[in-house]
Amino acid sequence: MSFARTGLRTLRSLPSAQVYRSSNILNQRRLISDEARKLIDNAVQSNPLVVFMKGTPEAPQCGFSRAVCQILDVQGVPREKIVSYNCLEDQELRSAIKEYSEWPTIPQVYIKGEFVGGCDIVLGMHQSGELENLLIKEGLAPPLPEAEPASKA
Amino acid sequence: MASSSSAGRQATRIPGPVETSIQQKIIEAFQPILLRVYNDSSKHSHHAAMRAQGGGSGETHFAIHLVSPSFKGKTSIARHRMVNALLKDEFDNKGLHALSLSLKTPEEWEKEGGGEMRSE
Description:
The structure holds two protein chains of two kinds. Helix content of chain A is 50%, strand content 11%. Chain A is of the alpha+beta class. In chain A, helix 4 links the parallel strand 1 (49-53) and strand 2. The radius of gyration of chain A is 16 Å and the shape is globular. Chain B is 38% helix and 17% strand. Chain B is built from six helices and three strands, in the order H-E-H-H-E-H-H-E-H. Chain B has helices spanning 17-30, 41-44, 48-51, 76-86, 88-93, 106-111; strands spanning 34-39, 61-67, 98-104. The two termini of chain B are 20 Å apart. The mean pLDDT of chain B is 87. Chain A binds chain B through residues 54, 61-64, 88, 102-105, 115, 117-121, 124-125, and chain B through 44, 47-49, 76-77, 80-81, 84, 87-88, 91, 96-102. Chain A: This is Monothiol glutaredoxin-5, mitochondrial.
């Protein structure tokens, strides 16, 4: 339940009994609960770049997850800007994220709270240049030396 | 008629029930100009998730190359969602685990030379 722990850290202002209860509910329900939804909402909205994956960026456990991390590397995204959740260590998260995104597979990439896509889409955006533009615009990758500074609109 | 991946050297390979239903559903829903369904399950049978299921059913990982006019004016996310929704039962109940999708309109496909996704 590493994901729940991370999420609960953000809920630490709540009374402990309440936190305990929501953690229990998250453990027991098969379908995505309001609590799980809140935890994921919180994760994707409080971090500009979130990757739900199998394994970690350092040790991916699936070729598709590995590919997504490699693309982010190639794009020059610093490791510390990538917040990743290992769905293999958390079966609740693994099923919850599929429902949350209405997307049946992992990895899943979120930028600024928006679902970007899985491996195929991220790869396609990488090849078309769309990903670079998005990452630069959101301040997640360094702008190209010759490029205009990203607008702060 | 759109055909499957069971061409050439793999002529004797018989598609399993999941591959067959993927093909049938896609042909019906998308009237494809081109459809290739590649079963990559054997390449992933050693993964943790598959080992937990005894190596999987042999029909867990697929790649699909699909050219259809239905994708006109749709973003890649929307195109993926169309295929994912069509195959919801395979994902939820038939052990489908991973799907790599290459989804193009006839115009996009022709512009790229109208070739195969794989050369095998």
